[in-house]
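User: Predict structure, ligand 4-nitrophenyl phosphate.
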Amino acid sequence: MVCLGNICRSPLAEGILQHQIDHQTLDWEVDSAGTSAFHAGDLPDERSISTGLKYGIDIRHQRSRPFRINDFDRFDHILVMDASNYQNVIRLARNQADKDKVEMIMNYLTPGYNQQVPDPYYGDHGFENVYQMLLEATNALIEKLK
Ligand code: 4NP
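Assistant: Predicted complex:
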């Protein structure tokens, strides 16, 4: 799960998918990262933490880290939140196989629409919307990939 800062959207995406993995006892690994290192080492944004906790999802153990080239080797799917994240990750791809792993996460729910998960960092009202979008997308992802 990849966004810009790895403190707002992708930590929630990781937490939601981990929660689903635990409940369905799937043998999957999920992690998250940012295309920037602006917040490396930081906890998730407190608004993401509180939105998760409202739904029983605790993301307080997470720490922001930048996306790394070897994430292309570690993971089968690299899910980005918006078009800017997509371009930043694609730019790091070494070959077509790397590029093929990168997908806008909302395309699991609405294939081909390239719908973006809006960056909620600069407002106070976007976090609930982000949570609901990610919940729907991860549910669709699980149905498709399991
Ligand atoms: P995120 O949100 O990419 O969902 O983690 C942001 C967090 C921090 C910044 C931008 C977006 N920032 O500019 O510091």
